[in-house]
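Structure ticket #2291
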Amino acid sequence: RPPPGYYAALNNGESANIAVGNEFNFGDEEALTRWQEQAMAAAVAEPTLSQALSGPDAVEWQEAIDYEISQLEKLGTWEVVNAP
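Resolution: structure written out below.
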């Protein structure tokens, strides 16, 4: 489970990317531990919307959802039309 504030940090532009480049030094124990933790976190399935909004991080999930929707609206990603 991510630490408190993790999802809010994503809203502020922090990246969830765990890509490892060729320059990664596996001799660096601290970096290796962080990489392993991130890899394990990526292997855990994300909760369903219902689970997320009823869990202990519900407020952060809702903030992230609201942010994503506001960005989609801001960018004009879709257009509301009448059903055929």
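Closing remark: The CA atoms of residues 5 and 17 lie 17 Å apart.
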